[in-house]
Structure formats: structure tokens, C-alpha cells
Amino acid sequence: MLMANNSVNGEVETRFSILCVGQNLRNLELLADFLSRLNYRPYCISDVEAEDNPPIKEGAYQLALIDITGYDQSIWRFCERIRSKNIRLLVVSARQTASLTEESMKFGASGVLIKPLVMKELATLIHTFVNENNE
Fold first, then answer.
1. Minimal CA–CA distance to 88: which of 27, 47, 132?
2. Distance, CA of 123 to chain centre
3. Given 35, 66, 93, 128, which is the most exposed site by the fewest CB atoms within 10 A?
4. Which one, of 68, 73, 76, 123, lies nearest residue 93 by Cα?
5. What is the DSSP letter of 7?
6. Which CATH class is domain 2-130?
7. Which residues touch 110 (CB under 8 Å, ≥6 apart)?
8. Domains of the chain: which residue ranges?
């Protein structure tokens, strides 16, 4: 599944593209709405191995938010693909362990966020990462 929002309230073109990955479609929808309100362009994918996903190209996204909940080990191959395209990524998980953090960093994550997410903190973090990538 891929969802894209190209404008906020049908008026203002968004600035930066953010790849959102997760199996929970409702959470992806909420995240896409949240990012759109912040004037970002979210692209949401639930099936990381679907053949109809658009190719991930270097520079296509300024950030990837990847909720690993419900995925098997194949999610790490997907994270590696993101990293190989020089796209910064944040891993989202329902639990925090040292091994999860280690695995996330091994596959290129800049950080691990634990659910439930605090939207104000998430907005600040996204803004910081996106601006660092575009300086």
C-alpha cells in the first residue's frame, strides 16, 4: 500500500518527502495526516517486499520513519536498502531493548523511538533531521 499527500489542505505544496513504513494501516494514516499538517510530504508503505512499491532512489526522501512492529527479519534488509541510498532513518518500536537499539544502529538507524510517540517531540526531531540533511 502506498499513500501520498501532495498538499496540505489542498493549498500549499509540501517541502520534504518522508518515507513512512509500518504494518498498521491506521497508524500509517495518522502519521501521514500528522506529517501533512507539518507541511511534509509523506509516502507510506506497509508491505516492504511488494513489487509495486516505487523504487527508492537516493535523495527521494529526506527521512524514513520505520515502525518495525509486526515485521520479521526482512525489515532489516529494507533498512539496509534505505541506508544504502543515504536516507536517514528512525526506527519506531513498541519496546526498547539494548539488542533492538544495537540492531537498529547496525542497519543504519539514526535513532530508535518508542511507542507511544509524543507528537510534539516527534515534530521537533523530524524538523531537526530534515534540516540537517538539507544544509
1. 132
2. 13
3. 128
4. 68
5. E
6. alpha beta
7. 88, 89, 90, 129
8. 2-130
C-alpha cell read off for 46: 506497509
CB of 46 within 8 A of CB of 15?
A: no
Q: How far apart are CA 98 and CA 3, in angstroms?
A: 33
Cell numbers linked to 77: 534488509
User: What does the pLDDT look like over 18-47, one tens digit per residue?
Assistant: 999 999 999 999 999 999 999 999 999 999
| Residue 56 buriedness (CB in 10 A; 0-12 / 13-18 / 19+) | middle
DSSP assignment string, 65-114? EEE-TT--THHHHHHHHHHHTT--EEEEESS--HHHHHHHHHTTEEEEEE
